[in-house]
Specification:
Elements lengths: L19 E5 L3 H12 L3 E5 L11 E5 L10 H10 L5 E6 L4 E7 H7 L9 E5 H15 L3 E2 L4 E7 L4 E6 L4 E4 L1 E4 L8 H4 L6 E13 L7 H6 L11 E7 L2 E8 L2 E9 L11 E2 L1 H7 L11 H8 L6 E8 L13 E3 L14 H19 L5 H31 L3 H6 L10 H4 L3 H17 L24 H9 L13
Parallel strand pairs: 1-2, 1-11, 2-7, 4-13, 11-18
Antiparallel strand pairs: 3-6, 4-5, 8-9, 9-10, 12-15, 12-17, 13-14, 14-15, 16-17
The chain binds flavin-adenine dinucleotide and 2-acetamido-2-deoxy-beta-D-glucopyranose (NAG) (2 copies).
């Protein structure tokens, strides 16, 4: 067995597989699936409901496992290296504005933790820049994307062995395998039978990203939220921790970003286009944060934010979905369609890309059309427990950030940082798939659970999967208990 993914294998390395793949959605999951399936020799078509690729948004955390596959895409790798945050700093405040941890050079901190600063466990990235990078790659490849195509239903046909979907205007599309990458609320839920209820966590986030020139309106704000290091040329993340809230700012070349976590208000919605104006934030932000109001400088930063920029994003919770595929394995969900993450988990984008890389590889290993259902099952076994664990860490992180215990922060500044465990970032979804596919399929055929098989775990070592629910997690939080992660090495 050749282990692919260790060396660079650009487009053209893999012979044609003859498999027709239909991808629905051009988020990170769909775009990665499209280019990786093309590289692995599959024929790819893409559908998207919007009129173009939506490059809105502010930032997200891109974990190392989601960027390893760039080695196969030299132009993307070059661009990623140029837009990435090098030489970043991090500084911690109380929400009231009192500094608690001086600016630290992230590279130094990585070295102190025994890590290589050249390959950090992940970095914050600007969504618009990452998307533009993907769009250019898709254009270079000449990928066929049919825009303005809103999918309303999915189907599969056992006799022909095809999967398919139907668009709003009644057009039918078919392929050997359909990848539903249409995000939270995927229209494939009905066929897959994995529908889970979305419930309000009671929390929401104000989030804004805008051109840094807007800070010229208030010179003191501009001076305070300056970059740092030699000639003030290095980006800095400032985190704010307070009772029942946290915030974050990022100052980088050209762009200013801020985020504040708060109780959901009437205007919160799970929608990246749901904007409100600065005054509403200023009117609401001091409610429920105890005797000390928010830092005046943070308020002035908010006041500098241009109109129609602040997204009031409601955080909805969903239990892990029991199933990600249609009964005969011809429709398979990836990314947010299969599992939703809270933004504070730092894992939504990463897991979406990992899914896409894993699935493209499993389909390559399937080799023929009749083996697709087996490959889809193998892919889900590789992904399910890892994802459920990452979701749980996300809740645990949210709790950690919201309820800072200052007596502990004093002794251990790491408590003020979200958990980003080794089992999360050490993974390479492509190499892992090639190393373990045969073993995984064998165990699957014998009916051995994935976490009891001899496949090396890509989740906390020693963990045994047990279904869990948001309700249980919420009970722990309400009772002031740390989230019960379960057995195994979660660090
Ligand atoms: C506009 C936008 C801005 C975002 N900004 C941020 C951010 O700032 N920070 C952050 O952490 N996360 C952000 N996210 C979420 C983040 O991109 C995802 O959580 C993560 O990357 C997983 O991506 P995904 O590809 O699974 O889903 P998504 O990124 O949600 O992509 C789903 C795609 O499917 C398309 N689609 C949906 N329904 C249909 C349908 N019925 N038919 C056809 N196409 C359909 C959508 O238009 C979209 O292009 C944003 C998402 C969007 C869509
Ligand atoms: C999201 O918000 C925008 C702007 O308010 C609105 O036009 C759009 O219909 C909303 N989308 C959904 C799915 O509610
Ligand atoms: C936020 O919600 C929590 C839990 O419901 C509540 O205890 C707290 O008082 C709320 N804060 C505000 C500002 O309403």
């Amino acid at each position: 067995m050749t282990i692919h993914g260790v060396e660079s294998e650009p487009v053209g390395t893999f012979p044609s597989s003859g498999l027709d793949v239909l991808v629905v959605g051009t988020g990170l999951a769909g775009l990665t699936a499209a280019i990786e399936c093309i590289r692995k020799g599959h024929n790819v078509r893409v559908l998207e409901r919007a009129a173009s690729i939506n490059t809105l948004g502010d930032m997200y955390f891109m974990g190392l496992p989601a960027t390893r596959f760039f080695k196969h895409w030299p132009e993307m790798k070059e661009e990623y290296d140029s837009i990435g945050l090098h030489n970043a700093w991090i500084e911690t405040y109380k929400h009231s504005g009192e500094q608690v941890v001086k600016p630290l050079y992230v590279n130094e901190r990585l070295k102190a933790a025994g890590l290589d600063p050249k390959t950090p466990p992940g970095t914050f990235q600007l969504r618009p820049l990452i998307y533009r990078m993907f769009v250019k790659q898709v254009e270079r490849l000449g990928v066929k994307i049919e825009f303005n195509t809103r999918v309303v239903d999915y189907f599969e046909d056992e006799t022909t062995g095809k999967g398919g979907c139907v668009s709003e205007d009644g057009k039918r599309f078919e392929a050997d395998v359909v990848i539903a990458a249409d995000g939270v609320g995927s229209k494939s839920q009905k066929l897959v039978g994995g529908q889970v209820r979305a419930r309000s966590s009671g929390r929401a986030m104000w989030r804004a990203a805008f051109p840094i020139e807007n800070l010229d309106k208030d010179p003191e704000v501009k001076a305070h939220y300056t970059m740092i290091g030699p000639d003030n040329s290095e980006p800095i993340v400032r985190t704010y921790l307070g009772p029942g809230t946290y915030g974050m700012t990022l100052t980088r070349p050209e762009t200013m970003i801020w985020i504040i976590n708060h109780n959901a208000t009437g205007s919160s919605a799970e929608n990246w286009s749901n904007t409100i104006e600065p005054q509403e934030v200023l009117d609401e932000m001091d409610k429920g944060v105890g005797p000390n109001p928010w830092s005046p400088m943070m308020k002035r930063l908010i006041a500098c934010t241009p109109e129609k920029t602040i997204v009031n994003f409601e955080l909805l919770w969903r239990d892990p979905q029991p199933s990600w595929k249609s009964p005969n394995g011809r429709v398979i969900q990836i990314g947010d369609a299969a599992h939703s993450f809270l933004p504070a988990s730092g894992n939504g984008a990463t897991q979406a890309i990992e899914d896409a890389v894993s699935l493209a590889s499993c389909l390559h290993l399937a080799g023929s059309k009749d083996k697709i259902p087996e490959a889809v099952d193998a892919h889900i076994r590789f992904r399910f427990i890892r994802n459920a664990c990452a979701q749980k860490v996300g809740f645990s992180n949210a709790e950690l950030l919201q309820d800072t215990d200052w007596s502990k922060v004093k002794f251990d500044p790491r408590r003020a940082q979200p958990k980003h465990p080794r089992w999360v970032w050490e993974h390479d979804p492509e190499v892992y798939t090639y190393e373990n596919f045969a073993k995984n399929v064998e165990a699957m055929k014998k009916g051995v659970r994935f976490d009891e098989s001899d496949v090396s775990p890509n989740f906390p070592k020693g963990y045994k999967y047990e279904p869990w629910s948001i309700e249980g997690v919420m009970e722990d939080m309400k009772a002031g208990r740390p989230v019960d992660l379960g057995p195994g090495d979660w660090n």
